[in-house]
Amino acid sequence: MVPSLSSSDNNGHVSSTPDTCSDNKVVPVSSIAAALAKPDESPYYIGFEKVRVDEYHNVSNPEGIIQLGLSENTLSLDLLKEWLNKNLNESLSQGSSDGLINVDKLAPYQQFDGIMELKKVMARFMSEVLGGGTIEFDPLQVVLTCGANPANEILCNCVADPGDAFLVPAPYYPGFNRDMKIRSTVELIPVPTLSSDNFIVTIEALNIAYDQAKKQGKNVKGLLFANPSNPVGNMFNKETLQNLLNFAKEKNIHIISDEIYAGSRYGDDKFISIAEVVYPESIEKDRVHIVYGLSKDLCIPGFRLGVVYSWNQDVLTASKKLTRFCSVPLPIQQILLSMLSDGKFIQDFMKTNQERLRKRYSIFVEGLEKLGLGYVKGSAGLYCWVNMGRLMSSQDEKGELELWDKLMNIAKISVTPGGACHCTEPGWFRCCFARLSVEDVCLTIERIKRIVESVKPKCCGCQCDRNRAK
After folding, report:
1. Does residue 200 carry a catalytic annotation?
2. pLDDT tens profile 246-256
3. Angstrom distance (rounded) from CA 382 to CA 360
4. What ranges does the record give for the region Disordered, renumbered to this chain (predicted)?
5. In the annotation, is 344 catalytic?
6. Which class is domain 97-345?
7. Which of 124, 249, 279, 449 has the greatest number of CB atoms lying within 10 Å of its CB?
8. Is 296 tagged catalytic?
């Protein structure tokens, strides 16, 4: 029985008595809550849950599942630990007369979009990492958020109405479906790319997707992409970025460039921000917006600092108001203000972190080559885009999911299948390597070898399949 409240007794106490008239109806929740309460069906999220209950540890759980599905960098946490141990108290005591934590400064209300001191050092940091020291970012165009995911959602709400659509070159980061669609309710339209084009989107493919969307009555409001690419790991050159800007001009739509991996480079290619393309422009900047954050490049996803950067004043004004729901705690801002102001530490950290990423990537792909598995030669990110198509029982979605299940339950490694990223070519998998020690990389390759050795050769043994997409 569902209890109900009776009137108070003689002592003024309210008592609870069974409601014999109740028909036990379930109180309805919103459609958003109902959808979120359902189990996640994507292998991307299923993998997280499986790892959560059986995660590999070299000592406590050596037979557990190795996590290659989470794009997180732990390679340089030792550098962060050293800096924090030396500077944390000083960071939080700034302005204090007694050298103790300055509660008077840290406890009161703040500007939800971030303190100006941090915006200034963040703009300088972005000028170096995104602009290569040649493009100047303006702190007045910086809006701070508690992570890049809220930054993406804020931009959705600023440039699109419910039911509007964004074109997104695919394969793309599976989390976009969650970040962009849960509350802003925009539609994401995958624009297919091909391995023969190194998974770089073409204007022809964008035009086809745009025209099809219009025929279906969809209102396309923007073009969303990650540069460097997640999950592929390649980067757009200046010509491609200019073509994307021209496309946006022609269709009169917005561009959202997610550049959160700009500083996590392990290749020789130069990163070019969309800011470099629009920098000389005088009239088209209003349609361009950048998302950035420190989760990847500084290895601090737990600090939750993201950035909306825009040339559109209406978007900036609206974004500042929306940060009321996703502001960065002031103690975190003070710590990051000190850290980003420490020029030598930042310079040394970025250099060392990139070197470590490069070495770990090299070890990982060397292992793939020994197994005869192809991959896209990446330039940035925390992952490798691997072609395991020859290990599949059938070259379709079913075969890809069967292989994903074998990797999870037989090889005991969790990877992200290409289908979860809307890749149209079955057999590609995103493998994140930046959480692995050298020993764990070697163990991962050994575990993949279990699957390779269980599959009969499908060709004469030549190099044709092995060299695919390298």
Report:
1. no
2. 999 999 999 99
3. 10
4. 1-22
5. no
6. alpha beta
7. 124
8. yes
